[in-house]
Design brief:
It is a single chain. With about 280 residues, the protein is an alpha/beta fold. It has one domain (about 1-275): Phosphoenolpyruvate-binding domains (TIM Barrel, Alpha-Beta Barrel), CATH 3.20.20.60. The protein contains 14 helices and eight strands. It has helices at about 1-10, 10-15, 30-40, 55-70, 85-90, 105-115, 140-150, 160-165, 170, 185-190, 200-215, 230-235, 245-265, 265-275; strands spanning about 20-25, 45-50, 75, 95-100, 155-160, 180, 220-225, 240-245. An eight-stranded parallel barrel has the order 1-2-3-4-5-6-7-8, surrounded by seven helices. Strand 7 (about 220-225), helix 12 and strand 8 form a beta-alpha-beta unit. Helix 5 runs parallel beside helix 6 and helix 13 packs antiparallel against helix 14. The longest helix has 17 residues, at about 245-265. It starts with a helix and ends with a helix. Pfam families: HpcH_HpaI. GO terms for molecular function: aldehyde-lyase activity; metal ion binding. Keywords: Lyase, Metal-binding. This is HpcH/HpaI aldolase/citrate lyase domain-containing protein.
Length: about 280
């Protein structure tokens, strides 16, 4: 049954197939219809954002299964590096977790312990929900899930604090960390190069250092992007787990485009909408 989990995790498959490139979307608004609609657009994964998004625990559980039902990987960004938050997301059936606010190598090791079943970690066993996000036929038992989970779920750490950046090479070497994921806006703020337009040269250098740290450690790399143009830029640089768009940006942009075209004011109005959603 390990093959069921391996084959169901579309993000993991994409990262380990061909050039390892995957594209994802970011969900910040609650709702299973929204989850399924986003997932059906062709993405490899959808991040259900419980850190900055308006998504509570029960809505997260439901969105995980809504995304998984389309054959796309539900990835949950938890609010902080807390063991109980890791447990809630994985017990819901998340194919992986994105974890913000790491600072040290010990933080990374603590995260791995929380995300792995013994003997590799300390994750508790007992969720009746996890299996359904990999096999909705009911053929995957809890014990089979437990035996396959450690090798088939993704642990993704955000490199966004100054301390994590300074320790990035050592964090990348931690066994059990699968992806180094960059949040450029928080990284820029924390390094003293806030993003207010194009990225500062120093921030671009920091992003390149994180990419190299991941590559040198044999790990995957990811980055948050607000648009397809941004996403293509970082795909060309060698990043592999790349967000393309978020719902709170896409919805006002699409609505404004339709209305402004109807009014004959498309160019100016759409530019204002994109600026406001950034």
């Amino acid at each position: 049954m390990a093959s069921i989990m391996k084959n169901s995790n579309s993000l993991r498959k994409a990262l380990h197939t061909g050039n390892g490139l995957s594209f994802g979307a970011w969900q910040m608004l609650p709702g299973t219809h929204l989850s399924r609609t986003i997932a059906r657009c062709g993405f490899d994964w959808v991040c259900i954002d419980t850190e900055h998004g308006n998504i509570a625990d029960d809505a997260m559980h439901e969105s995980v299964h809504a995304v998984a039902s389309t054959g796309v990987s539900p990835i949950v960004r938890i609010p902080a590096n807390e063991g109980w938050m890791v447990k809630r997301a994985l017990d819901a059936g998340a194919h992986g977790i994105i974890v913000p606010l790491l600072y040290t190598v010990e933080d990374a090791k603590k995260l791995v312990e929380a995300s792995k079943f013994p003997p590799r970690g300390r994750r508790g066993f007992g969720s009746p929900f996890s299996m359904g996000a990999f096999d909705n036929s009911g053929n995957l038992s809890g014990f089979e899930y437990m035996n396959a989970a450690n090798d088939n779920l993704l642990t993704i750490v955000q490199i966004e604090t100054k301390e994590a950046f300074e320790n990035v090479e050592e964090i990348a070497k931690v066994d059990g960390i699968d992806v180094l994921f960059i949040g450029p806006w928080d990284l820029g703020n924390n390094l003293g190069y806030p993003v207010q337009g194009d990225f500062a040269p120093e921030l671009k250098e920091a992003i390149a250092r994180i990419l190299k740290a991941a590559q040198d450690a044999g790990k995957k790399s990811g980055i948050y992007c607000p648009s397809g143009e941004f996403a293509r830029r970082y795909a060309d640089q060698g990043f592999q787990m790349i967000s393309v768009v978020n719902d709170m940006g896409a919805i006002p942009t699409a609505f404004t485009e339709g209305l402004s075209k109807a009014k004959g004011t498309w160019g100016h109005t759409a530019a204002q909408a994109v600026k406001g959603a950034a």
